Amino acid sequence: MESAVEALVRDIYAPNTRSVRASWLRTWLSVHHTAFPVGQSVPPFPLTPLIIRRVAALFKQGGYLSFENYMLRAKAEHVIAEGANGEWSRALDRACKDGMRSVGRGAGAARQSSPLDVLFLATLGLDCEPVVEVGPLALVDCLIAGTLFLLREIELLAARRCHVTIAEDQRSVTWLLPTSKTDPRAVGVSRSWDCIGSVPGMDGICPVHALVRQCARLVGIAETCGADIQSMPLFPRMDVSEVHRHAVIGLINA
Questions:
Q1: What is the pTM of this model?
Q2: Cα-trace Rg, the chain
Q3: What is the mean pLDDT of residues 158-176?
Q4: Phi and psi at residue 192, in whole multiples of 5°?
C-alpha cells in the first residue's frame, strides 16, 4: 500500500516540474533560515504571518520578480505540514497576499531574453563538438531543431532518438513529445515538419535536414560505444549521457 501511495504522490506533478518545485522549496527554506538565524528556533512550517512577512521582506530585498511561485509553493507545503491540519487561515491569506503585492510592486517586467538568430547561427560553420562544457553535441542542429519545433530546453533535453520518426524519403519528420504538465495521461503530442530547405530565405535551417544529420551521427556514436540507439538522448553529451538544462541555457547564451 505504501508503494501505491508513493506512486500516486509522485505522479501528481509531471517529471519536468518536480525539480522546479523542489528548487522553489529549497530557496524558500534558505531564505527562512536567513530570516530566522540560529538561536531563534523558528521552524519553517507550519507558516505564520510573521514568517511570511520576514521571508517576503528578504525576497523583496533580493529583487525577486517571481515571489508568487515561491509563496504558493510554501503554502502547499504548509497545508500538508504536521501541525497545520490543512488549515489556511484568513490571517495567513492576508499576509500571503500582502507579501506578494509588496514584493511585486515596482519590480518591473521580467527580464526579456534576446532572440536567437537561427539564420545567422547556420552561417557560423560550427562542427558537432560541444561549445560549452558538458553541453550537447551538434550545437547548430540542436538549436535549429529546438527552435523550429518550439521546444523548451527541458523538452529538448528529454527527447530520445525513439521520439523522432523520419519519413522514408527524408522529406518530413515527426517528433513525439511525451508526458508533460499539460499531458498527465502521457498520451503525448506529435509535431511534424516538411522539408523547407528550398524555401527562399530559409537556407541552412531546415528542421528535417537537422534531425536527419543528427540521427545519422547517433548511429555512429551508438556503434562506437555499444549503446542502444533508440534510448539515447537525441542531443547527448560527449559521454552519451543527458545534458543538464543549465548547460543548454549556457549554450544558447554562448
A1: 0.58
A2: 23
A3: 92
A4: -130, 150
